[in-house]
UniProtKB/TrEMBL annotation, chain A:
GO cellular component, one term: cytoplasm
Domain of life according to the entry: Eukaryota
GO molecular function: rRNA (guanine) methyltransferase activity
Identification of the protein by name: Methyltransferase
UniProtKB/TrEMBL annotation, chain B:
InterPro entries attached to this UniProt entry: Trm112, Trm112-like
Protein species of origin: Neoarthrinium moseri
UniProt entry tagged with the keyword NAD: no
Family, per entry: Belongs to the TRM112 family.
Gene3D superfamilies from the UniProt entry: 2.20.25.10
Top-level taxon in the UniProt lineage: Eukaryota
A single MF term (Gene Ontology): protein heterodimerization activity
Annotated localization: Cytoplasm; Nucleus
GO biological process: rRNA (guanine-N7)-methylation; tRNA methylation
Protein name: Multifunctional methyltransferase subunit trm112
Gene Ontology cellular-component annotations: cytoplasm; nucleus
PANTHER family to which the protein is assigned, alphabetical: MULTIFUNCTIONAL METHYLTRANSFERASE SUBUNIT TRM112-LIKE PROTEIN, UPF0315 PROTEIN-RELATED
Keywords: Cytoplasm, Nucleus
Length: 280, 127
């Protein structure tokens, strides 16, 4: 499938025609709604909150936030940011309840510190990986966005950003930028290895422990069904220094390393790593 | 744009990040509209500790509202006094700025507000 991110910037791509098409397509509406519900589930808010909708577009996800019934913790109040004026125009015509802001998320998040309980972003942050002019870089845009978002969330707050990464490299770049800004970051993939894979970046601010759960993503998904946790974080003791240099284990490790590099390595036998007998 | 949002917005210009004048933004030539929105008491109580009362007082005076009490009400007071809650709800949620400008006191940058949407796009040399 073609990626609009590759050809144009967000504010140019979503012109009046494209914005209308996007909002009236029932297929997109359904996908957006299911992703917004999933993001809300990950945010796990128990009482009415102030939420930032990053890349709110025509307010498809915001609608769900403001229509949430009280027994599920709603209705939330949201403030939406988007760079496309046409999208916001459609949002105005649809009479959404949240406040709208015409702003480029790559320029930062213009709210004072500790404003929001949570942030949600549906199919938006992959646009940050594009730079249209030579005076901005994807890295700069990503770091401005994540730094701004980090500051504007309250301690113990969460952000869930669903995005469409182009490749693994882009996924790494986005998560890396989030971690650098200070977030506890984790990726949740729904339907992995299929065409319909949905990637959610779950960000946590501060190491707040709520109801005995840790604040990071492993705490967030705890208790959810059908979620496999793959923790790639380095453990406290990294194993380095435990193997003595020159020992058999060290030699085996080196041989493996060389083999992986594609070098010719002598086969291992019972004599490997043994001391030679003194000849005289 | 709600007065509530205005209470959280600060100037987006890079040079203003360290200046204390960049918050709050001052409304200029503002056209106000009153909307009818259902009162959400729990939300207001949740939000109250985060609202900057001094900034809100300034904004309210600039928009031509009667002066607010100098001290912010406590959540308990708000819960007990329905009239207070209604007043706060009216100011924060129902009052909306439709047209006008938001001016930063530090750099003087004017953010235009049109049809209730504030324009926070900046030229790249200000980011």
């Amino acid at each position: 499938m073609s990626r609009p991110e590759d050809t144009l910037s967000a504010d140019v791509h979503y012109d009046d025609v494209e914005a209308r098409k996007y909002t009236t397509s029932s297929r997109i509406q359904n996908i957006q709604a299911s992703m917004a519900h999933r993001a809300l589930e990950l945010l796990d808010l128990s009482s009415p909150s102030l939420i930032l909708d990053v890349g709110c577009g025509s307010g498809l996800s915001g609608e769900i936030l403001s229509s949430l019934p009280p027994e599920e913790g709603g209705p939330h109040v949201w403030i939406g940011m988007d760079v496309s004026a046409s999208m916001l125009d459609v949002a105005l015509q649809r009479d959404v309840e949240g406040d709208l802001l015409l702003a480029d998320i790559g320029q930062g998040v213009p709210f004072r510190a500790g404003t929001f309980d949570a942030a949600i972003s549906i199919s938006a942050i992959q646009w940050l990986c594009n730079a249209e002019s030579s005076d901005v870089s994807p890295q700069g845009r990503l770091s401005r966005f994540f730094n701004g978002l980090y500051a504007s969330l309250k301690r113990g707050g969460r952000a869930v950003c669903q995005f469409y990464p182009k490749n693994d490299e882009q996924k790494k770049m986005i998560t890396g930028a989030a971690v650098k800004a200070g977030f506890g970051a984790g990726l949740l993939e729904d339907d992995p290895d299929t065409k319909n894979v949905k990637v959610y970046l779950v960000l946590t601010v501060g190491q707040a422990v709520v109801n005995g759960q840790t604040g990071d993503i492993t705490g967030v998904v705890k208790g959810m069904d059908n979620v496999d946790v793959m923790d790639a974080r380095r453990k406290a003791s990294s194993g380095k220094g435990e193997i003595k240099k020159g020992s058999k284990a060290w030699i085996m490790h080196k041989k493996e390393q060389m083999e992986r590099k594609g070098k010719v390595v002598k086969s291992t036998s019972k004599y490997t790593g043994r001391k030679r007998r003194i000849a005289f | 744009m709600k007065v509530l949002s205005l209470n959280f917005l600060s100037c987006a210009v890079k040079g203003c990040k360290s200046s204390s004048d960049s918050y709050p933004l001052h409304p200029k030539d503002a056209e106000l509209v009153q909307d009818d929105i259902e009162v959400n008491a729990q939300l207001l109580i949740n939000l109250l500790p985060r609202i900057d009362w001094t900034a809100l007082t300034t904004t309210a005076t600039e928009l031509g509202f009667p002066a607010l009490p100098p001290q912010a009400p406590t959540p308990e007071e708000l819960e007990a006094d329905e009239a207070k809650l209604k007043d706060l709800h009216h100011l924060l949620m129902e009052t909306q700025i439709m047209e006008g400008k938001l001016v930063c006191a530090s750099c003087g940058h004017e953010y235009a507000v049109r049809e209730g949407i504030a324009n926070f796009l900046l030229p790249s040399h200000l980011v």
